[in-house]
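Hi Q.,

Before the meeting this afternoon, I wanted you to have the acetyl coenzyme *A prediction in hand. No need to reply - just skim if you have a minute. The sequence and ligand are here:
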Amino acid sequence: MAKLRYAAILGWGMAVPQRVVTNDELAQQIDTSDEWIRTRTGINQRRIVGPGEYTSTLGADAARQALERAGLAPTDVDLVILATCTPDRPFPATACAIQASLGIPGAGAFDLNAACSGFVYGMHVATAMIRSGMHRTVLLVASDIFTHLLNWNDRNTCVLFGDGAGAVVLQATEQPLGLLASTIGAWGQGEDLMAAEAGGTRMPATPELMKQGRQHVMMNGREIFKHAVRGMSESSLQVLAEAGLTPDAVSLVVPHQANVRIIEATAKRLELPMERVFVNLDRYGNTSAASVPIALCEAVETGRLRDGDHVLLTAFGGGLTWASGVVRWGRPS
Ligand code: ACO
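Predicted structure with the ligand bound:
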């Protein structure tokens, strides 16, 4: 019988735009305050793209770092997956631009849209492809320029988001590393709870609709909040049970960084202290699909993760979508 394959994380990287926008700066333009944003969300500042920075440029920067840390060449990669809901262009897939920018010859490349859950969805898909034996080395990138979708006069949404990218390189191994268990889920009935109405095939963007701002994200924050806590905590418990672990065995939770109150409520349901939860949304806001890999990257680089640790990844996003996975950290010996 063929040995079971795993997909170890060999490298990790992140990229954020240069430009920092503080809560005080936003408060000069709309009716909000640093105090409201900090206490209701935990966000102090966010990064916002400038000219020449796109989903593909940030994604490629993060990917280059991940390949370098993995000690791999572009020619080693046989599949590129980009998790994004804000592609460079509606067509073709932005993953192809990243593939070209890195000089990865011939490898398959496609985009995956699961909004803020995109990276954890991507971990699930990439690991399944490696475990099946169909791919050996997968570059998984998550990059979103979510600020592109915002109405800067809507205080309900514009204070919450920032731009960024993260990436990992996964490679086949027979050692039990990488994702040990994962789940992805969606509740399509909730798609209107958070959406950009115009700009797709259902409602093509016309000058009239654009004038009304229908291309911007609309969100029911309170409803999303409830679904987020339930989706992340239930799917987390499910993957821990599948991996044969109790929450106590988790060294670090790396959750989607949308709102610190969502993160605290999720940790409470998992009966885990906040000391074992990684939070960096104070500096970046909600970077959509990029939030989990950016947090993972910072967790590793600040020594919060050691070989052999169990890391719980959990995310929630528009769709509505959710995904969780438990990773055994470490590179194959
Ligand atoms: N500044 C000041 N006041 C504000 C602001 C702001 N930026 N935004 C909203 N308010 C006001 C509201 O208008 C409301 O006023 P009202 O009572 O007079 O109507 C009041 O503050 C309270 O509003 P609530 O909705 O009760 O505030 P809440 O405590 O729920 O916080 C928030 C709102 C931060 C949006 C919260 O509900 C949340 O984080 N929800 C989850 C959103 C989310 O994570 N979305 C992303 C999903 S991931 C993805 O796919 C990209």
